[in-house]
Amino acid sequence: MEHSMAASEEAMQSLAQWIDWLPNHHDATLNSRPDVMVLAARYGDGHLRAAKAIGLALLLHNPAIKLGILDYYKFVNPRLDNMIRWVYLTSVRFAPDLWRWFYTATQRIDPESGTQKFLNSIGLEQFYRAISPKPPKVIISTYPTAAGVVSTLKKQGRLDVANYVVMTDYSIHSQWIHPAVDKYFVGGQDMLEALAARGISREKVVVSGIPVDSRFREPVDAVRVRQQLGIGEEPVILFMGGSYMPLPEFSHVLSQIDRVTAPHVTVVVAGREENRKKLALQYQRDSKHPMVVLGYVNNVHELMGISSLLISKAGGLTTTEALCRGVPMLIYRPIPGQEDANAGYLVKHGAGILAKDQDDVSQMVEHLLTHPDDLRKMADRARELGHPDAADIVAEHTYQALLGREAHGRS
Q1: Which residues form the Diacylglycerol glucosyltransferase N-terminal domain (predicted)?
Q2: pLDDT higher than 90, residue 394
Q3: What is the pLDDT of residue 380?
Q4: Which residues does 138 contact at the CB level (< 8 Å), separation at least 6?
Q5: Of 26, 209, 310, 351, which residue has the fewest beta carbons closer than 10 angstroms?
């Protein structure tokens, strides 16, 4: 039994490495002519993380599937890609009201408008030329631009493919909704109702949850993880500031957490930015409470598994990971637009609270740590909202579509 379990873990690691390899080798992945193509984008890492979760679930279902995972913006002119990326990152970090205006202005845009047609044409011809020699049978988009392009090609009669869209936030936006989509996979019942209100057939919508890494449903050895971090039995506050949070605000949240008088340990995930980690280490030296400072980590599933509360912005994947782990969230500085909606979803359903400003953080944490019943209720609500099997659900629908198309091709 131990040998077979070890072999299974080894096979899982091998598949995960292969999944990681695919989007980093664009041309080789394209040249393999995959039957199932998952299109993501590196605007934040949530879209790609969802794509990888789906890919791994597919290969665990059937390792023989010819799979491709691609960054859609590799098909876009590099100058245009760089400009779009710069505008997005700059606006969400330094001009959030501008991004909120754009998000709101396009939330119900007419699909036949010039703006929508332009968005649905970004990279279209390059993408079509690349896949036309042997098109995939199923395309899954975890990024809205890709979904619009595939829909346009289907509508033009240039592409015959099962077109699946996996929404990676808890809000409905016109950029995700297109006429030639065969199936939408959404995070919750609220989204199904919102799509139906926009005229989308309920038969096209699957309440799957947002796909996350399969490790978020595995049990965590809390004693081992705490020992590795060098912490005791105190409640753990996990702070994931994210690269979009300006350093002054990151610093202020750290000081707010340390003002909390109730016993706790703070685990800070600073990510890849060295200046963010250095700042956290400065706070660690003078902190009144134990503090662990980490850089980039690949065991968020374990850190969430020992945490009583997560302080973070409301990215779709981070939010979903917390729900799957049953970790309540204190949401701070969500990106305007989609993350505002994610925060609203958690608050509405009792799985999160939203800090209105920096000074709310310490009061909210103090209240939750000194009222454990409130914290427990939030954790219960989070578990009820989580869909840890979301990737499996998307994979099963994909596999059935693939079998159907192969059978049709043989008839």
Answers
A1: 47-212
A2: yes
A3: 97
A4: 35, 36, 37, 161, 162, 164, 398, 401, 402, 405
A5: 26
> DSSP state, 176?
G
Burial class (CB in 10 A: 0-12, 13-18, 19+), 376: middle
CATH number, domain 2-212+389-410: 3.40.50
**pLDDT tens digit sequence for 82-98:** 777 777 777 777 777 77
> What is d(CA 316, CA 169) in angstroms, rounded to the nearest whole number?
5
d(CA 320, CA 331): 13
Domain ranges for the chain: 2-212+389-410, 218-385
- The total of other beta-carbon atoms located within 10 Å of residue 93's CB is 14
Cβ-contact 292, 267 below 8 angstroms: yes
pTM of the model: 0.90
Structure confidence by residue, pLDDT tens digits, 128-172: 999 999 999 999 999 999 999 999 999 999 999 999 999 999 988
d(CA 35, CA 22): 14
Side chain identity at residue 117, one-letter code = K
CATH 3.40.50.2000: does it fit domain 218-385? yes
Question: Is a pLDDT exceeding 80 seen at residue 192?
Answer: yes
